[in-house]
Structure formats: structure tokens, C-alpha cells
Design a protein that fits this description.
The chain is mainly alpha-helical. The chain is 50% helix and 0% strand.
């Protein structure tokens, strides 16, 4: 069943099965245009397509706001 899904996604998107597999496994990094094209093929929006995707990068929390009285 997995192969059929990969073939269907490849046919619909125009991307090779190998490329899509690399994206799925995290071995490749898609461009923004690729994300838009994949979302379009799956009949969804890019934000819905990316919802729930976990990042493996660590980000620092935003800096705390500085009150104007602290700056002199």
C-alpha cells in the first residue's frame, strides 16, 4: 500500500518517488516553492500541510522586553 501512495504522490506532484522519500525521511530540505506545490497537489494549504511538523532544531526563547526605565 505504501508504494502505491508514493507512486500516486509522485504522479500528482511531478516529483520523483526518491525525492519525496528523501523529504519524508528528513534527508532533503524543500524550497518554499516545493512546499506550495506539494500542498497544492494534496489539495490543502501550505499552513495545513506543515501543521504538526516538528523541527529538530533548537531555538532560543525570544528576549525579555526591556523596560524604558532600565535603559539610561
Amino acid at each position: 500500500m505504501r508504494l502505491l501512495q508514493a507512486r500516486e504522490n509522485s504522479d500528482r506532484s511531478g516529483f520523483s518517488q526518491q525525492y519525496l522519500s528523501g523529504l519524508e525521511k528528513g534527508h532533503r530540505n524543500p524550497t518554499v516553492i516545493t512546499l506550495f506545490e506539494l500542498a497544492n497537489c494534496l489539495e490543502t494549504t501550505p499552513d495545513e500541510f506543515l501543521r504538526g511538523v516538528k523541527s529538530d532544531t533548537q531555538t532560543d526563547p525570544p528576549p525579555s522586553p526591556v523596560s524604558p526605565s532600565a535603559v539610561r
